[in-house]
Specification:
It comes from Sulfitobacter geojensis. This is Aminotransferase class I/II-fold pyridoxal phosphate-dependent enzyme. Its cofactor is pyridoxal 5'-phosphate. Keywords: Aminotransferase, Transferase. By secondary structure, the protein is an alpha/beta fold. Helices cover 45% and strands 12% of the residues. The protein contains 37 helices and 26 strands. An 8-stranded mixed β-sheet has the order 6-15-14-13-11-7-8-22, sandwiched between helices. A 5-stranded parallel β-sheet has the order 2-1-3-4-5, sandwiched between helices. Strand 9 and strand 10 form a beta hairpin. Helix 1 (10-30) runs antiparallel to helix 4 (78-94) and helix 17 crosses helix 26 (586-601). The protein starts with 9 loop residues before the first helix and ends in a 10-residue tail after the last helix.
Length: 913
């Protein structure tokens, strides 16, 4: 049987072992050969033993049914067992157990045809009551467990909006395992009889207990603290859940404890109806979608439309003879819900007072912010709103040079003086990594030495990058606050919205880190550690400070903003985005300017369908985000394993590992790969806790240079045109496959099939190739895998746009608007006049943004000096899309007179008469 190390998660292991059990039992029923039958029986026995460790944490099929199946096997009732295992596996696969009771014996079973949940229409599925499971933690015997479950079942009423089943486990450790295994759990009832240790002791469960406890020694707890401590620990791994504590302790004892996710305490009572109502109320609070519900109700109202938008209520379509196909394609509801009105139960996005305001508050709770704002025109606009709200003209902003272009344009709008930060290069793959913390600290200390620290306003970084590199957010923020205690952080988490709903990923999000730091900085332990370090570092050089793990002062201000492309990684219509705020000075300093910036960039006619999708998308992740993100990571890990272990694919492709994309000195855990053919899966928790940078496992970067095709050709001509596989990120010799919460194992299987087919075709092509054709192929491969242009760093701003030569900040806004006047600009050809100018020692200064796709960020910004390295990189680019560059004219640059006029303002004065 496969080793546990062959599986990334226990849920994947469970699904595959139920499949294996069904197949093995079915084969046993047909097998007539005694030796083969014995082998099948041994395998079935192993599968039962393996599943026995996992099934206690799930309500379906339940341990009673599972034990019955095991007895069927032991008594030789193989036909009955085959029927039962088939029923269980089918129900688990289709989710039928969520919608109705599944009979598991032939006598009471319904017609097999009616068991096919795939035949249900979306409307029928929508009408079903949502299903979840409640975890009861209490060390009870079998009779007491049946009594608990029966009392819970008796509380159900036909009018209840949800349906749930109970799972009973005895210990704190079992409860931690259950909430990490079982994505159906939405509520936990912690009773006073729980014990500490689990009876299960094996390799599957050990890492889950360690990760959930986050290194805390739970063995030192007193028994009376098990319940409150469990609520706190679950809050750490699945904060979206509700907990209910049944206790015998006094009110005074409970009042001083951190109860984590506990919604209510019941004092030594068996009021099952009150508990039942609280459980339903808690789930309903997360299920609530105020704006979507208001929009649905609006669509049902009879209205007379005498305002803008002829398409409102679908009138302009239903009355048309020529565009009926549009109405047929979209259906009526989308038009019935289309309006520009803010009445009738709806709300204004610009001044929300009703359901939009409530929807944003629910999103704030879900994502851990203090305030959350919706946006209907993408994260590009969110970025500009935050920058314009926080940054004032003349403020110094430290910016990741490789960030999205919206940030660069935001600097122009805000009038910031920009210090661009260089990421470490990955020359071999023609992509950049991320900005090392030492580079950030070095720039902050240089600005401090120059007496400019008071003007430093913001640090802006991309987390995670397009290629999947994730910062150690807490360390970056704390060490920067140690130098600049009121520094504002803007984390561009456009590609990281899903991270909130994974225990592993959540610890590296801006909002989670802000909340952690706000708590930790107030503790006496932190204050003591800070004071001790200050004594040790008294008179320390900048070099020492750069190389020391700095501690932030207790009075540092936590000021964090995160922008999120909800539509990119969660459920939302295109351009649905959010701004999350966790700024201690927001109310007193930023709120008004934020409101004005929001007004500046937000449409007065926002798309209500996008707002509704943001509302519903938030509901989804609060109730099933843990499950969906877990499956997303599983899909990506399966893809890694399949490609890395396939002998044919290894000939032409390589999955880039953390070791390929993150230098060793930034990987303190020593983890270099998430999957190894010899050792299986790596526990990624350790590297996500320790390392300077980690690799988002949901992004699989595939080196394709071995095929002889560059990344863009492989994307368009092979994957998209020939096989219909869509991707949107390439480099010179790589393509990026991004999984998301909608990715299925079937999609992964199809991709692997396609890659194998491509590899086989290449084998056939090379097998029949002539000597010259083979030489041409080898030359292309060598050019893509060995002869790569070095990636240039940011050169510098021209002196005309710098206040001095001490620190590197530049006035990008002045440069941007200087180019508006045509006489200030000229064009130089890359292979002609531009090369000649650099050879002659002239300073050539870009008059605009130059953005090649890929990599998709500016390699030149207005006011930047063109270096020989940048010119060499531009000449080596083999991409067809370069924004800001005109192939017919060349590179747009400033004239010498334009630059001279800035440095010598008197030349601009009119001549004396």
């Amino acid at each position: 049987m496969d080793s546990v190390s062959d599986y990334y998660s226990a849920t994947q292991l469970r699904a595959d072992r139920w499949s294996a059990l069904r197949e093995s039992v079915t084969s046993l029923c047909r097998e007539t050969h005694a030796k083969k039958a014995a082998a099948l029986k041994a395998r079935i026995d192993e599968l039962f033993s393996s599943l026995a460790l996992i099934e206690p944490y799930w309500a379906f099929p339940g341990m009673t049914a599972f034990d019955h199946m095991r007895r069927q096997f032991e008594h030789g009732n193989y036909e009955d067992l085959a029927f039962t295992t088939n029923r269980v596996k089918r129900a688990l696969t289709t989710g039928a157990y969520r919608r109705r009771s599944i009979p598991l014996d032939r006598e009471t079973s319904d017609d097999e045809e009616h068991n096919d949940e795939a035949m249900l229409s979306p409307e029928a599925r929508a009408m079903a009551r949502p299903y979840f499971e409640v975890l009861i933690v209490d060390n009870v015997n079998d009779q007491q467990e049946r009594w608990l479950k029966s009392n819970v079942a008796r509380m159900r009423r036909p009018e209840d909006p949800f349906h749930y089943e109970a799972v009973v486990v005895p210990s704190l450790e079992d409860a931690l395992i259950a909430v990490l295994f079982n994505h159906n759990i939405q509520a936990i009832v912690v009773r006073p009889g729980l014990v500490l240790k689990s009876n299960n002791d094996n390799e599957i469960l050990a890492k889950y207990i360690r990760n959930a406890s986050d290194g805390d020694d739970i063995n030192t707890m007193l028994p009376e603290d098990y319940g409150p401590e469990l609520c706190r620990l679950i809050a750490r791994v699945r904060p979206e859940l509700d907990a209910y504590l049944v206790t015998e302790r006094s009110v005074e004892d409970i009042a001083g404890l951190d109860l984590g996710i506990c919604r209510r305490v019941f004092y030594n009572q068996e009021d099952f109806m009150e508990l039942h109502l609280n459980i339903l109320r808690g789930v309903a609070a997360r299920s609530k979608t105020p704006f979507f519900t208001a929009l649905v109700e609006y669509s049902k109202q009879p209205t007379g439309v005498f305002h803008a938008m002829p398409i409102s209520r679908g009138k302009s379509i239903t009355r048309s003879h020529w565009i009926q196909d549009m109405g047929a394609f979209y259906g009526p509801n989308i038009f019935l819900a289309e309006t520009s009105a803010t009445s009738g139960g709806l709300d204004s996005l610009l001044e929300p007072q009703g359901p939009i305001k409530e929807a944003q508050e629910l999103a704030s709770r879900a994502f851990g912010s203090k305030q959350t704002f919706f946006a209907t025109n993408g994260t590009s606009t969110c970025n500009k709103i935050v920058v314009q709200a926080v940054v004032r003209p003349g403020d110094i902003v430290l910016v990741d040079r490789d960030c999205h272009k919206s940030h660069h344009y935001g600097m122009v709008l805000a009038g910031a003086e920009v210090v661009y930060l260089d990421s470490y290069p990955l020359n071999e793959y023609s992509m950049y990594g991320a900005v090392p913390l030492k580079e950030i600290k070095h720039q902050l200390l240089a600005l401090k030495a120059a007496g400019k620290l008071d003007r430093v306003r913001m640090l802006l970084l991309t987390n995670c990058t397009f290629d999947g590199l994730v910062y150690n957010v807490e360390r970056v923020m704390e060490e920067c606050l140690a130098i600049k205690p009121d520094l504002v952080f803007l984390w561009d988490e456009a590609w990281f919205a899903f991270a909130r709903f994974s225990p592993t990923y959540r610890q590296r999000t801006g909002m989670r880190t802000a909340n952690n730091l706000r708590k930790r900085l107030r503790t006496e332990d932190h204050k003591r550690d800070y004071e001790l370090q200050q004594l040790e570092l008294e008179g320390a050089s900048d070099e020492t400070l750069v190389n020391t793990r700095l501690i932030a002062p207790p009075d540092a201000r936590i000021r964090v903003y995160a922008t999120q492309s909800t539509h990119k990684t969660l459920t939302s219509l295109r351009q649905g985005s959010m701004i999350h705020v966790n700024d201690q000075d927001f109310k007193g300093e930023v709120e008004q300017s934020f409101h004005e910036a929001y007004m500046t960039h937000t449409s007065t006619s926002p798309n209500y369908q996008i707002i509704a999708s943001l509302d519903v998308g938030r509901r989804q992740v609060e109730l099933e985000g843990f499950e969906f993100v877990q499956r997303q990571i599983e899909a990506a890990m399966s893809m890694r394993k399949a490609i890395s272990s396939h002998p044919m694919l290894q000939k032409y492709f390589k999955v880039l590992t953390a070791g390929d994309m993150i230098p060793e000195h930034h990987r303190q855990s020593g983890v270099s790969s998430y999957f190894d053919n010899d050792q299986g899966w790596t526990d990624i928790w350790d590297c996500w806790e320790q390392d300077d940078f980690v690799l988002d496992a949901t992004r699989v970067t595939l080196a394709v240079g071995g095929t002889g095709w560059d990344g863009d050709t492989f994307k368009t001509q092979i994957l998209m045109d020939k096989y219909g596989i869509q991707i949107n990120k390439t480099s010179r010799n790589t393509v990026l496959f991004m999984t998301n919460i909608g990715t299925t194992r079937s999609s992964v299987a199809y991709l692997i099939e396609v890659l194998v087919e491509i590899a086989n075709e290449l084998d056939d092509l090379l097998d029949d190739a002539s000597q010259m054709e083979r030489r041409s192929f080898d030359r292309r491969v060598k050019n893509l895998t060995e002869n790569y242009p070095p990636l240039p760093d940011f050169s510098r701003f021209h002196d005309a746009f710098r206040p001095d030569n001490i620190t590197p900040e530049g006035d990008i806004r002045t440069a941007y608007y200087l180019s508006y006047k045509e006489s200030n600009c000229d064009y130089l050809e890359l292979d002609g006049s531009l090369q000649e100018a650099l050879d002659a020692g002239d300073e050539v200064v870009s008059a605009g943004f130059i953005i090649p796709y890929p990599p998709g960020f500016p390699i030149l910004v207005p006011g930047q000096v063109v270096s020989k390295e940048i010119l060499s990189f531009m000449r080596a680019l083999d991409v067809s899309e370069i924004h800001g560059y005109r192939a017919d004219l060349g590179l747009r640059v400033f004239t010498a007179d334009a630059l001279d006029s800035l440095q010598n303002p008197q030349k601009l004065k009119p001549a004396a008469e």
